[in-house]
Structure formats: structure tokens, C-alpha cells
């Protein structure tokens, strides 16, 4: 009996306390039991994983490996496992509503004003905003903000959006688009300055304005605030000119357009007009020019200017009565409505006329469903070698591998419009 009593070992209890190191609060407690001297079989991993989700991380594990149940039955064993608060770097908008949140978001603006040369607003300003955020360090247990990373401000966007400059009737902008620009931690103010457009000024052969006829301001290009459109010329009763349209060489300067009287009492050259200089009061000759410019619809030169001159003596006589007619040159890929400009009467001031060239259309291969054939060439119409106002008649359509066109040649109905040609699969 005594030997049996000696072999019996006491049952012991052991406690595992999970304690918040920063507050001393007991977060959880587990227990286990076993015979004195036996290894304690307990794994804290599951409990630690639960506390990890609550924002804690292990600071000190007071439960050593190989621990055994105590031989002392007068005192329970307690193992302390200490945990600390995790910290996390977050952006301000991730913790909205936190009353402890410091000023961790700032806004800056890009303001674009549209004004005339005197600073008067011509169009409402356009404003864009950039938001900058500063990361903060928070306590994952309490959610409290610990500190702010003042050297790590980041914008929510890298660039401001490009801005198309609005068209303002009667004005020309100094640019058509403001390109995108990097955001910065300050407000940006930018201005687009507009200037008044020039005018078409109908004048008579004596250099004076046609009586009772107002100058006509240039029309804006509806798609580009920094350009003007091709201008139609005003009709003036009792007068005629040999132009159908013009493209101003300088949209900010007036263009004088010569109108000749159609009545029997035609205007004559004045030798006493103070606003012009038809003769030289010093007795020497004066040379004036008639210049024809050849431009496309974008105002780009497509051929060299045709320049003629007239020589004027001090008595008002001149070496020629009329300038010669000017034939519009053939420009590949373009057509014009002006085949030949009738030579105007020679006048004692500079004359500038413009011949406008438009892009020729194309041949567009399409399938039987009306869809453009992928990868197929779309050739521009060929010019008529004898007439710059029309494309070549009966021009061949392109050949496509695996397709056959329903027609072999076309004659465009409109020089500026595309022509669709149907192709069938072979």
C-alpha cells in the first residue's frame, strides 16, 4: 500500500496569461492540467493568432520550451505572455472619422483665366484641383494616430489634365491647348491672353475705304482658338473683286481687299489722300506690289508667293495699268476653287491676295457589309495635271490581295469628299 501511494503523482494546474505590455491589461487566459513533473503540452499559437488580428504582436513569451508541471502542489504555475501594440502606416482617407487625425490632407488648385490684353475676363476660368495626402502612423489596437510622416506627402494624381482653350468670337488666343503639367504643392495661376481679330477692309483703287461699307471682322476657326477660318468676302453693291475667299496672313492685322467699281463712274487713283502714299512728293519713283500667297486651310504655305510690281512716278503715272493674271499652281494632294486670278488694276499701295488649297479626298475600300477593309490602302485622289480645281477623272482603284473591286476606275463627285469602293472576297 505504501509503495502504491508513493507512485501516485499529484495533478497540477497551470495558467497562461496574455497581457498587454503597454496597459497591463489581461487580454486572455488559458489553463492546462497534468501530473507533477510531466511536460506541459500547450501551444500558444492559436491564441497568438487571434490577438494578432486585434492589432497585437508578441513582445515576450514567458512560457519556455520544455516546461514541466510543478512538484509544488501548494502553488499554481502562471506563465505570462506579453504583447505589444502593432503600428501601421496608412493614408488619411483610410481612417476618416478618427477624431485624433491630424491635418493629413491638403488641396491645391490650377486656375486658368481667359482674358484680353487689359485683363478683362472673356470666358469663365477653368479650375482643377490636386489633393495631397500625408501618411500617418496609427496604433492598430486603439486606432490612435501616433505620428505623421511630414516628409512623405503624396499627390493623388501626378499631372493636371490638358485644357482645350475655348474659342471666343472675335478674338485670337495665344495658344489652342494648355498641355498637362505636373502637380505641385502650391496654387498655380495661368492666363491665356486673347487679342482682337483683324478685319477685311474693302478698298477702292484710290486706297480709300469703299463708302458706307463696314469692315468685316475675321471669323474664328471653330475648332482652334489660335486660328481663323478661311474667310468669305463680303458682297459690295456696285463693286466687284476677283477673289472668292482669303486666308489672313496675320489674323491680328486687317487685310485690304480691292473692290473695283462696276459703274461707268469708276473711282480713279487719288494723288492727295493723306492716308495713302500714291506718289512721292520728293520726285522719286515708288514701287508697289501685288502678291498672291498659296496656303492650305491651316495657313501653311504650299507654294512660293507670286509677286508682281508696279512703278509709280511723282506725277501719278505708272508703268502698268493692270497686274497680270495669276494661274494657281498644281499642288499634289490638294485642290483649289481658284483656277486663275484675274489681274487687278495696279494701285499705289500693297495688294495681297490668297489662294486657298483644300485636301483632296481618298478612295476608301469597303467590304460588302459597308465596313472598311482592315489594312487596305486608302490612296488620296490623283490631281488632274491640267486643272488644279478638280481631281483626275477615271483614276484606278487600288488592288487588294484576296479581293476584287466592283469597279476598276472612279471619277470623284466632290474633290474634297472620300469615295467608298466596294470589294468582294475572291
UniProtKB/TrEMBL annotation:
Q: Where is the Mucin binding domain?
A: 16-85
Q: Superkingdom of the source? A: Bacteria
Q: Where is the Mub B2-like domain?
A: 103-196
Per the UniProt record, one Pfam family is: MucBP_2
What is the protein name stated in its UniProt record? Answer: Uncharacterized protein
Q: Which InterPro entries match?
A: Mub_B2, MucBP_2
Q: What is the lineage of its organism?
A: Bacteria, Bacillati, Bacillota, Bacilli, Lactobacillales
Q: Which residues cross the membrane?
A: none
Amino acid at each position: 500500500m505504501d509503495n502504491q501511494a508513493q507512485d501516485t503523482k499529484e495533478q497540477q494546474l497551470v495558467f497562461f496569461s496574455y497581457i498587454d505590455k503597454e496597459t497591463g491589461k489581461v487580454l486572455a487566459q488559458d489553463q492546462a492540467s497534468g501530473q507533477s513533473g510531466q511536460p506541459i503540452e500547450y501551444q500558444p499559437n492559436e491564441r497568438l493568432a487571434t490577438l494578432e488580428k486585434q492589432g497585437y504582436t508578441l513582445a515576450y513569451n514567458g512560457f519556455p520550451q520544455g516546461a514541466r508541471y510543478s512538484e509544488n502542489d501548494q502553488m499554481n504555475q502562471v506563465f505570462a505572455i506579453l504583447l505589444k501594440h502593432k503600428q501601421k502606416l496608412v493614408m488619411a482617407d483610410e481612417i476618416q472619422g478618427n477624431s485624433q487625425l491630424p491635418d493629413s490632407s491638403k488641396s491645391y488648385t490650377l486656375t486658368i483665366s481667359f482674358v484680353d490684353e487689359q485683363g478683362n475676363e472673356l470666358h469663365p476660368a477653368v479650375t482643377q484641383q490636386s489633393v495631397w495626402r500625408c501618411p500617418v502612423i496609427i496604433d492598430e489596437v486603439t486606432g490612435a494616430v501616433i505620428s505623421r510622416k511630414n516628409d512623405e506627402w503624396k499627390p493623388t494624381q501626378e499631372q493636371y489634365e490638358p485644357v482645350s482653350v475655348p474659342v471666343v468670337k472675335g478674338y485670337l488666343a495665344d495658344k489652342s491647348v494648355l498641355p498637362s503639367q505636373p502637380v505641385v504643392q502650391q496654387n498655380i495661376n495661368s492666363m491665356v491672353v486673347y487679342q482682337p481679330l483683324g478685319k477685311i477692309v474693302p478698298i477702292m483703287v484710290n486706297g480709300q475705304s469703299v463708302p458706307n461699307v463696314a469692315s468685316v471682322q475675321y471669323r474664328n476657326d471653330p475648332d482652334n482658338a489660335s486660328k481663323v477660318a478661311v474667310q468669305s468676302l463680303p458682297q459690295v453693291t456696285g463693286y466687284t473683286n476677283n477673289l472668292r475667299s482669303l486666308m489672313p496672313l496675320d489674323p491680328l492685322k486687317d487685310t485690304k481687299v480691292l473692290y473695283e467699281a462696276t459703274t461707268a463712274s469708276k473711282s480713279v487713283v487719288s494723288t492727295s489722300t493723306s492716308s495713302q502714299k500714291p506718289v512721292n512728293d520728293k520726285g522719286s519713283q515708288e514701287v508697289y506690289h501685288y502678291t498672291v500667297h498659296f496656303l492650305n486651310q491651316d495657313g501653311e504655305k504650299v507654294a512660293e508667293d507670286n509677286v508682281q510690281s508696279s512703278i509709280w512716278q511723282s506725277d501719278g503715272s505708272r508703268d502698268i495699268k493692270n497686274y497680270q493674271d495669276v494661274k494657281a499652281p498644281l499642288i499634289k494632294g490638294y485642290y483649289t476653287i481658284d483656277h486663275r486670278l484675274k489681274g487687278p488694276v495696279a494701285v499705289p499701295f500693297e495688294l495681297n491676295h490668297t489662294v486657298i488649297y483644300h485636301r483632296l479626298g481618298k478612295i476608301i475600300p469597303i467590304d460588302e457589309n459597308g465596313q472598311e477593309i482592315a489594312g487596305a490602302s486608302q490612296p488620296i485622289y490623283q490631281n488632274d495635271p491640267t486643272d488644279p480645281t478638280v481631281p483626275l477623272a477615271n483614276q484606278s482603284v487600288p488592288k487588294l490581295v484576296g479581293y476584287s473591286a466592283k469597279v476598276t476606275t472612279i471619277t470623284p463627285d466632290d474633290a474634297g469628299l472620300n469615295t467608298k469602293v466596294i470589294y468582294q472576297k475572291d
